[in-house]
Automatic annotation (TrEMBL):
InterPro entries assigned to the protein according to its UniProt record, in alphabetical order: Beta_helix (IPR039448), Carb-bd_sugar_hydrolysis-dom (IPR006633), Kinase-like_dom_sf (IPR011009), Para_beta_helix_rpt-2 (IPR022441), PbH1 (IPR006626), Pectin_lyas_fold (IPR012334), Pectin_lyase_fold/virulence (IPR011050), Prot_kinase_dom (IPR000719)
SMART domains the record matches: CASH, PbH1, SH3b
Composition bias type Pro residues, residue spans: 344-380
The protein's name in its UniProt record: Kinase
Alphabetic keyword roster: Kinase, Repeat, Transferase, Ubl conjugation pathway
Organism: Deinococcus radiophilus
Biased composition (Low complexity): 265-291
Pathway: Protein modification; protein ubiquitination
Length: 878
């Protein structure tokens, strides 16, 4: 049954998943194309809530229009000209549901996993979540490619009004089941659960069952012990702090696709395998050798083309495609004899038999008529050779952002420039031969080898140099010893030293180097560094260091700038991008950094280790693949006045025995905590704004301590400040406001003191303590919570003294289970259910408390008969 959408150009043919909210439909466009259409009806479109839903959906749709990945249906059209409906149209390439074969080879499973996590990484790169990954979300395209269906944008926009709807609990991460918002790590979990289900052939236990001890089913023998199994296990870890932080992290854990030796005939004596069903009877004769052909323009061996034709005929002849096939360019070697593509029979109706080719009539063969050789197309002149200087650049069919993406090239790839049009260059990719258009500002001209050799000779002779605009390609690492001079350029993105050598691009041992408006890029596959400075001084002004990679197997990392041997660096207005770590300091190295940017590094923006130190100020550390800043060892840097945001792990992580000073920073929208402190670290955290982080604003673990004072800890999705294990910090004069769960939580055996803090507006208790926690809570103000002000449970103890607990929806203070804090000198007023409540086996130890204007009893006792006898003075909330 069809129905008309509220947009005349699309006719809906039915929901893709009828069993759940039908936002995504098969549809037919007015011009005849098959499409997918996601349709959202805006609830109460003229209300503020309705307008919020509309804006949220349109913002997500516009981001999705920028995503182009071969494993995702491409978003084509956003129709938002009506107030009460919005429609997003996609190309309909979802041919049939993906069915996992009973036992996939390691190579095929690895390839499928990389393809689907690549699609997920493409979504996350535009700050988009999928939220609906399960077996139903995996498809096969018409050409045999695996596909991930579009993300549930409509459902996400409506969640605030209607709730998230039912989800299969096997694919829902534990933190989401416990009430947390969906996150990129939840998508990572859902895809890993889906793949594990397919590769094992067994349903996964739910996250709750796994937390109670249920194990994962065994994968097929071919996958056991592989890097694939390790990557999926990490992606499925119930603990967010351990789970892979992103889809990109899973891809890096997977590494390269395992290569199998091709099984193809290599001599005239080789016996060919049976021809595939549906192949033309004009296949090559048995015993004929398979010639080796050069690759075609797309980079495929030419023998793949007739194989694809044979497969197409098989499908047209009525074969049911079972299981999934990898993309054609990655297809495994075929052992069947290959038909001549010029003699292939046309597709036959399902169930028909392809007749054999008629035998030629007897008699002499006529002499063939000579066929003139076609003239080769004239070779287009190459204007110059350019080098890609951004991490990834799309080559499009035409100038302008609307052209179809032909291929994607990475930093360091060379392009032959054939022509120019405005801001765009027409290019031919040197490796592979693809042609198209790129934006000119994303490339630089390649300087001649003679020019580069002259620069190297001058530097090694101790002279300062001026670089022109372009890429200076270093065939070997540039090593400078006891060099005192400068390298100056036209701009960090205009003058670039680049190398893919297996060692560091530039090394300075001793001396004093100044880099001014110069970029250094390492683009090799080994974990070398862009700039390594040992026992020397370096000054960076408007410089850019990029491209240093990591190697998980070797547990080695590449750094944009590596300082050791007591080196020091002064860094101003510089950028560190797309490295493993942007800046790495060890031993006693020092770095003094102002107004610089550390972004999109895979492990972290900055790592201070050992006894290193220095200062970071007025800089941004954002969108890094793990934590923004690491401080370890006994490092004591001063981190002041920076913006530390949107890192996939913590904004700042402090561990070892480190004692940094962290002041005046904005730590926001990080994937874990704004700041996390562990081991025996004792940082001073003062005057920061810590807000909108996915987990806690500030968290202490292990035996950590230190001081957190005068911070604004607001609107983090979980707890404002969490203190766990044996940590015992001093928390003073902080404003802990409107966090998603509690304001301050102590658990396990945590302790320390919280004094003079303002804790306001929480959905859970303002302050909570459980386990064997033993905090001292003194002179805090706890206001306006949706539950009780302070709750002690389990066997928590400690001191609750001199606090003002006011206007809670339940009680001022609850002490329950076997908890035994001393409760003294507190003022409890305006709490709707009552002032003090002791329950179960709690120890009642209350003196000098004042209860006023509460909605129930000032002091309530709901104790078990076997509870210790209460100890209360007559004036305490009587």
């Amino acid at each position: 049954m069809t129905q008309s959408a509220p947009f005349s150009q699309y006719q809906l043919l039915g929901p893709l998943h009828p069993e759940r909210r039908g936002h995504l439909h098969r549809a037919k466009a007015a011009w005849g194309s098959a499409t997918l259409a996601e349709l959202i009806e805006i609830p109460q479109p003229y209300s503020p809530a309705g307008q919020h839903v509309r804006r949220t959906y349109i913002r997500g749709a516009r981001s999705l229009l920028q995503v182009h990945h071969p494993q995702l249906p491409r978003a084509l059209d956003l129709a938002d000209d009506q107030e009460d409906w919005v429609l997003l149209a996609y190309e309909d390439v979802l041919s049939q549901p993906l069915a996992f074969p009973p036992s996939a080879s390691l190579k095929a499973a690895h390839q499928l996993t990389r393809q689907l996590y690549g699609a997920l990484a493409a979504l996350h790169s535009q700050a988009l979540l999928h939220t609906r990954i399960s077996e139903q979300a995996l498809w096969i395209g018409a050409q045999g490619h695996p596909l991930l269906e579009p993300p549930a944008l409509a459902e996400q926009a409506l969640n605030a009004e209607q709730g998230p709807g039912d989800r299969d609990p096997r694919f829902v991460a534990p933190e989401v089941q416990q009430g947390a918002d969906w996150s990129p790590q939840a998508d990572v979990y859902a895809l890993a659960a889906t793949l594990w289900t397919g590769f094992s052939g067994q349903s996964l236990p739910t996250a709750k069952a796994r937390q109670q001890g249920a194990g994962l089913p065994d994968l097929s023998p071919a996958l056991q012990g592989s890097r694939l199994e390790q990557a999926l296990t990490l992606a499925l870890h119930p603990d967010l702090a351990v789970r892979a932080v992103s889809a990109s992290a899973v891809l890096e854990q997977l590494g390269a696709v395992p290569q199998a030796a091709p099984a193809r005939p290599t001599s005239a004596d080789a016996q060919p395998a049976a021809a595939p069903a549906g192949a033309s009877p004009s296949a090559a004769a048995p015993g004929s050798a398979t010639p080796t052909a050069p690759p075609d323009r797309a980079g495929r061996p030419q023998w793949i083309t007739p194989v694809l034709i044979g497969l197409t005929l098989a499908i047209a002849g009525g074969l049911a495609l079972r299981g999934w096939m990898p993309a054609a360019a990655d297809a495994p070697a075929v052992t069947a004899t290959v038909p001549d593509p010029l003699q292939v029979q046309p597709p036959q109706p399902a169930g028909s038999v392809v007749p054999p080719a008629p035998a030629p009539a007897p008699g002499p063969e006529p002499a063939p008529e000579p066929t003139p050789e076609p003239a080769p197309p004239p070779e287009r002149p190459v204007l110059r050779t350019d080098v890609v200087v951004r991490p990834e650049v799309n080559v499009r069919t035409e100038p302008g952002g609307s052209g179809t993406v032909v291929t994607t090239v990475k930093q360091g790839e060379q392009l032959e420039v054939l022509g120019e049009q405005g801001e765009w260059s027409e290019v031919r990719v040197a490796q592979g031969g693809a042609e198209g258009w790129v934006k000119t500002e994303l490339t630089l001209p390649l300087r001649s080898r003679a020019e580069t050799q002259e620069v190297i000779a001058d530097l090694q002779a101790g002279a300062s140099v001026e670089l022109g605009r372009g890429v200076y390609w270093l065939e070997q690492p540039l090593e400078l010893t006891n060099y005192f001079g400068a390298i100056r350029g036209r701009g960090a993105r205009e003058s670039v030293l680049m190398s893919r050598a297996a060692r560091d691009t530039v090394t300075l041992v001793g001396g004093d180097l100044r880099l001014d408006q110069v970029g250094i890029a390492h683009i090799g596959a080994t974990p070398a560094h862009a700039l390594h400075v040992s026992g020397a001084q370096v000054q960076l002004s408007q410089a850019r260091l990029s491209g240093a990679v990591r190697d998980r197997a070797l547990e080695e990392y590449g750094y944009g700038l590596w300082l050791n041997g007591g080196s020091s660096a002064t860094i101003d207005r510089s950028s560190f991008e797309a490295n493993a770590y942007g800046l790495y300091l060890e031993d006693t190295a020092q770095a003094y950094i102002t107004a610089s940017d550390f972004s999109s590094n895979r492990e972290g923006g900055i790592y201070w280790g050992d006894q290193s130190g220095g200062e970071l100020s007025q800089s941004s550390v954002g969108r890094n693949g793990a934590h923004g800043i690491h401080v370890s060892g006994t490092a004591q840097p001063n981190i002041a006045g920076n913006e530390i945001f949107s890192n996939q792990g913590r904004g700042i992580t402090v561990y070892g025995d480190a004692a940094p000073r962290i002041s005046g920073n904005l730590l926001s929208k990080n994937g874990l905590q704004g700041a996390g402190v562990q081991d025996r670290a004792t940082p001073e955290i003062q005057g920061n704004r810590i807000r909108n982080n996915v987990q806690s604003g500030l968290a202490y673990f292990d035996d950590a301590g230190g001081v957190a004072a005068q911070n604004e800890v607001t609107e983090n999705r979980k707890v404002g400040i969490s203190v766990t294990e044996s940590a015992a910090p001093t928390l003073s004069e902080n404003q802990i406001l409107r966090n998603g769960e509690s304001g301050l939580v102590y658990s396990d055996g945590a302790g320390g003191e919280a004094a003079l803090n303002l804790i306001k507006g929480h959905a859970n208790p303002g302050i909570a303590a459980w386990g064997t926690a033993r905090p001292t809570l003194r002179d805090n103000t706890v206001l306006g919570g949706q539950q009780s002000g302070i709750v002690f449970a389990d066997r928590a103890s400690g001191l609750i003294e001199g606090n003002l607990i006011q206007n809670q929806a339940l009680y001022g203070v609850i002490v329950t289970d076997e908890a035994a804090p001393e409760v003294t000198g507190n003022t409890l007023s305006g709490n709707l259910k009552g002032g003090l409540l002791f329950k179960r086996q709690a120890t009642v130890n209350a003196y000098g408390n004042v209860c006023e204007n509460n909605g129930g009893q000032g002091l309530g006792l709901e104790l078990d008969p076997t509870a210790p006898p209460p100890s209360v003075d007559e004036a305490s909330c009587s």
